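Open question from group meeting: does this chain pack into something compact, or does most of it stay loose? Before anyone orders reagents, we agreed to write out a predicted structure and look at it together. Recording both the input and the output here so the notebook holds the full record.
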Amino acid sequence: MSCGLSVVPVECLQRGESGTIVDISGDDRTVHRLHEMGIRCGCQITLKRNDSPILVNIDGRDLLLRCGQAAMILVSVGTTTPLIS
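Structure tokens returned:
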């Protein structure tokens, strides 16, 4: 089995798709606020709604994010592709 990872902003996930937060960019104040909300590197995040505001789930909690905030959150999405023998 071959594995490939892609890193995308959380807003680019499909509804119901999950990923692992690998980076949060932006000004110190906004990054600090996101950390206070429980949004940290290593957390599993699932996109529930991609409208404005964006609805995500982290650690069993639903959170609403502004589009600008969601663009700052980069997630790693793993894909697996079976090898053909």
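Observations to bring back to the group:
The beta strands are 2-9, 18-24, 44-49, 54-58, 61-65, 73-81.
The domain at 4-79 is CATH 2.30.30.90 (SH3 type barrels.).
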